[in-house]
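tool_call predict_complex ligand=NAX
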Amino acid sequence: STTPIKVAVTGAAGNIGYSLLFRIASGALFGQDQPVELRLLEITPALKALEGVVMELDDSAFPTLAGVEIGDDPTKVFDGVNHALLVGARPRGPGMERGDLLEANGGIFAPQGKALNEVAADDIKVTVTGNPANTNALIAQSNAPDIPSSRFSALTRLDHNRAIAQLAAKTGATVADIKKMTIWGNHSATQYPDLFHAEVKGQNAAELVNDQEWLEGTYIPTVAKRGAAIIDARGASSAASAASATIDHARDWQLGTAEGDWTSMSVVSDGSYDVPEGLISSFPVTVKDGEWTIVQGLEIDEFSRGKIDASVKELEGERDTVKKLGLI
Ligand code: NAX
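tool_result ok
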């Protein structure tokens, strides 16, 4: 279509934004034939830096970039947007408890949910990358009663991609050989990357690896703690890979998942796999015509059950905290 798709990005002057905006503008999200218009939200003190980023977008002369607007008022920036990528969030400061962190982020994601409810396009799809992503998505969704809850999601695609990369390294396969990876639960250290349904060149990954000790002692912690390993090495948190995963997530949501494969998205539970209804938790999903569906009927063994339950319990704790705070 030649009508531009309007994509909002929050935290646009941040580290992820610096990578994400150029990928979107260059056509990585919806292809070379689909113009996009960027709507960039920042807090007031970061608007000057954002103006510099916009100068660089101009200087890139991207043929698919139909326009850029910036601002600090979500009801203006989100006006008519089709995709909202909510990246900006409040990081955990020194001495900050989990409850303080959730409260500070409630101050961001509740008003943004309300603004989306008021002014976004009818087909709005919301992806939350800013941490704690799942619960921030729940806060935004709860504050947008007129938008179907299925239009809110949180990013676990980076975990999914990390899980594929680690499995490829272990098995000597290429990432393209790996299908049906699943991240279950929360985007946090409790997340569960599931090899029992993943396939390497059509072969069951857990059977191929056949090493429960590696799975439990190396694989799961390596994927779950990859963010910390990157901070340790780079002195800064993952930014380009997080931007790339945000693109993968939004593109698959708009354009669909490949036949014979699925992806991981944190979406509102309908009670599937005994994840309490209403929680935004990561599941295996397929996407067709812009709508996701949780993959049904996977057998969950005792080991996987324990891992999924532990992560879901953490999500329930976060939900209870934000409920007590009156944020949902
Ligand atoms: P930065 O601190 O570089 O950038 C965040 C930006 O958000 C800042 O420019 C800030 O001014 C802006 N911001 C703050 N409050 C805002 C508001 N109310 N409205 C609009 N903008 C606002 O962080 P960056 O490295 O870009 O990371 C952004 C978020 O992604 C963090 O919460 C981070 O924890 C999270 N991540 C999530 C990942 C995931 O897989 N879900 C992985 C990467 C990353 O850790």
